[in-house]
């Protein structure tokens, strides 16, 4: 039986720590195929990917990944539990039988996930305090504080999804060593026009040179227009717009000079910055609950890139996969990918780059 390894990433941007992670998987586990499910043009914390999904797929394929699949917006811009739900569902559809992720400390994730699943989680949905705070309290009650360990938080959620759905997937880890590689640090360096030499592979520097780097600074005026041109009733239809937040959005946008200022004006004990940032993104992109639900109910596999090993595996996968496998977007595929096409078009207002129609997967020989 072939050993198919898969992992989840944002590569925002791809740095030397990611390269070490991929090399470590190959050295430690010797996978027959290595697959990465990578966030599209928007990332979990409610931000724009610093460069587009095609650039990041090229970075991954050039650095040893055999096959890159897009994690749709409906899953990529979500709290950890839904992010994990979508990621693991896609990896399962891809025939991955070994999930691998990085961790700061060597933990028994399967045992911890099993214990956490036994705990009554109803109070997690109680919005008297923030979702993240409630969830962290739940983890603390199981003897684990992972507020400062995002990889472990996601790892636990991945493993919980495997257990809940009885997926045929082993759990493997790579121990992260203390290093200076941080995507946040690199983005800060870029925004300050500081050198990132030594922090990223040559392919990343090359892609950053030719791709337009985007952030909320580019879109704040568009967000402002969207909010002020909408009625409270229209804003209520936005995904996750709850508890009268539409009125708060209308009030605070008038008094805010930039996106950071707006976020701080919105912030309260009830809502974390990450949740508010995601809600701002849903608002900018006019994302409705029905659009998110559609992706949940009708999953698909969008191929962003592959090498020779990945190409051979795709040919095998086509005969066995139960969901649409998409390498090109035409009229038929655009109906299934309607949310992705919409949000990508709005991203393209600034950089004028087509993200879906006419695009084909990145292939190793082209890099």
UniProtKB/TrEMBL annotation:
<dbReference type="InterPro" id="IPR014729">
    <property type="entry name" value="Rossmann-like_a/b/a_fold"/>
</dbReference>
<dbReference type="GO" id="GO:0016879">
    <property type="term" value="F:ligase activity, forming carbon-nitrogen bonds"/>
</dbReference>
<dbReference type="InterPro" id="IPR008513">
    <property type="entry name" value="tRNA(Met)_cyd_acetate_ligase"/>
</dbReference>
<keyword id="KW-0819">tRNA processing</keyword>
<feature type="binding site">
    <location>
        <position position="151"/>
    </location>
    <ligand>
        <name>ATP</name>
    </ligand>
</feature>
<keyword id="KW-0067">ATP-binding</keyword>
<feature type="binding site">
    <location>
        <position position="176"/>
    </location>
    <ligand>
        <name>ATP</name>
    </ligand>
</feature>
<keyword id="KW-0963">Cytoplasm</keyword>
<keyword id="KW-0820">tRNA-binding</keyword>
<dbReference type="GO" id="GO:0005524">
    <property type="term" value="F:ATP binding"/>
</dbReference>
<comment type="function">
    <text>Catalyzes the formation of N(4)-acetylcytidine (ac(4)C) at the wobble position of elongator tRNA(Met), using acetate and ATP as substrates. First activates an acetate ion to form acetyladenylate (Ac-AMP) and then transfers the acetyl group to tRNA to form ac(4)C34.</text>
</comment>
<protein>
    <recommendedName>
        <fullName>tRNA(Met) cytidine acetate ligase</fullName>
        <ecNumber>6.3.4.-</ecNumber>
    </recommendedName>
</protein>
<dbReference type="GO" id="GO:0000049">
    <property type="term" value="F:tRNA binding"/>
</dbReference>
<dbReference type="GO" id="GO:0005737">
    <property type="term" value="C:cytoplasm"/>
</dbReference>
<dbReference type="Pfam" id="PF05636">
    <property type="entry name" value="HIGH_NTase1"/>
</dbReference>
<dbReference type="GO" id="GO:0006400">
    <property type="term" value="P:tRNA modification"/>
</dbReference>
<feature type="binding site">
    <location>
        <position position="102"/>
    </location>
    <ligand>
        <name>ATP</name>
    </ligand>
</feature>
<keyword id="KW-0436">Ligase</keyword>
<keyword id="KW-0547">Nucleotide-binding</keyword>
<keyword id="KW-0694">RNA-binding</keyword>
<feature type="binding site">
    <location>
        <begin position="8"/>
        <end position="21"/>
    </location>
    <ligand>
        <name>ATP</name>
    </ligand>
</feature>
<comment type="similarity">
    <text>Belongs to the TmcAL family.</text>
</comment>
């Amino acid at each position: 039986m072939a050993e198919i390894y898969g992992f989840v990433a944002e590569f925002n941007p791809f740095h030397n720590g990611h390269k070490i992670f991929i090399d470590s998987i190959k050295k430690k586990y010797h996978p027959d195929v290595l697959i990465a499910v990578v966030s599209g043009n928007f990332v979990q914390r409610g931000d724009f990917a610093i460069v587009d999904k095609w650039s990041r797929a090229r970075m991954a394929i050039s650095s040893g990944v055999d096959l890159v699949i897009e994690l749709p917006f409906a899953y990529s811009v979500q709290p950890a539990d839904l992010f994990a739900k979508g990621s693991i569902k896609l990896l399962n559809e891809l025939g991955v039988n070994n999930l691998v992720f990085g961790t700061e400390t060597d933990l028994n994730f399967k045992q911890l996930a099993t214990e956490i699943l036994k705990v009554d989680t109803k109070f997690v949905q109680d919005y008297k305090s923030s979702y993240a705070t409630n969830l962290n309290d739940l983890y603390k009650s199981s003897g684990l504080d992972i507020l400062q360990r995002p990889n472990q938080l996601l790892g636990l959620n991945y493993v919980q999804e495997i257990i809940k759905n009885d997926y045929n997937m082993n759990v493997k880890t790579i121990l992260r060593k203390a290093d200076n590689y941080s995507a946040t640090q690199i983005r800060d360096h870029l925004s300050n026009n500081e050198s990132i030499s030594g922090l990223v592979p040559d392919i990343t520097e090359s892609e950053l040179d030719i791709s337009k780097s985007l952030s909320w600074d580019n879109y704040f005026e568009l967000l402002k227009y969207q909010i002020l041109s909408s009625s409270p009733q229209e804003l209520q239809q936005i995904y996750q717009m709850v508890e009268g937040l539409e009125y708060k959005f209308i009030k605070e946008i008038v008094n805010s000079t930039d996106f950071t200022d707006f976020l701080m004006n919105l912030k309260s004990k009830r809502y974390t910055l990450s949740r508010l940032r995601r809600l701002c993104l849903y608002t900018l992109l006019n994302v409705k609950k029905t659009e998110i639900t559609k992706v949940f109910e009708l999953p698909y596999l969008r191929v962003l890139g592959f090498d020779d090993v990945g190409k051979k595996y795709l040919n095998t996968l086509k005969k066995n996969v139960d969901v649409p496998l998409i390498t090109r977007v035409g009229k038929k595929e655009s109906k299934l990918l309607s949310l992705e096409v919409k949000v990508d078009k709005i991203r393209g207002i600034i950089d004028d780059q087509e993200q879906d129609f006419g695009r084909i997967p990145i292939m190793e020989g082209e890099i």
